Amino acid sequence: MSKNSKAVVSFIVGAAVGVAVGYFLNSDAKDDMVSKLRYEADKLKEKFRRKKEQFEDAVENELT
Fold first, then answer.
1. What is d(CA 1, CA 31) in angstroms, rounded to the nearest whole number?
2. Which of 45, 46, 23 is nearest to 33 (CA)?
3. Average pLDDT along the chain
4. Contact, 52 vs 46, CB < 8 A?
5. pLDDT tops 80 at residue 48
6. Which structural domain range is residue 29 located in?
7. Phi and psi, residue 52, nearest 5°
8. What is the DSSP-derived secondary structure letter of residue 9?
9. Distance of CA 55 to CAs 32, 43, 49, 50, 62, Å?
10. How far is CA 4 from the centre of its chain?
11. Average pLDDT value for residue range 20-29
12. Gap between the Cα atoms of 50 and 42, Å rounded
């Protein structure tokens, strides 16, 4: 594949992705997906916080 054809394919793929993102950002599904992502992010933060506390407790118990 030549450089010109790669550039054309890249441009077309980029344009398609841009159109898809633009459509998504203007749709009603955006709000639903954002709230789901926030919920999952909060769950992961809480899980990480608990694991961090467990690790800190384990290290503290080993040092005493």
1. 41
2. 23
3. 87
4. no
5. yes
6. 3-63
7. -65, -45
8. H
9. 35, 18, 10, 9, 11
10. 32
11. 78
12. 12
Side chain identity, residue 54 = Q
Retrieve residue 29's tokens.
């599904």
Q: How many CB atoms lie within 10 A of CB 17?
A: 10
Q: What is the number of domains present in the chain?
A: 1
Q: How far apart are CA 53 and CA 59, in angstroms?
A: 10
Helix axes 3-25, 29-63, angle to 10 degrees: 100
- The tokens for 8 are 């054309």
pTM: 0.51
Tell me how far apart the alpha carbons of residues 21 and 30 are, in angstroms, rounded to a whole number. 10
Contact between 29 and 23 (Cβ < 8 Å): no
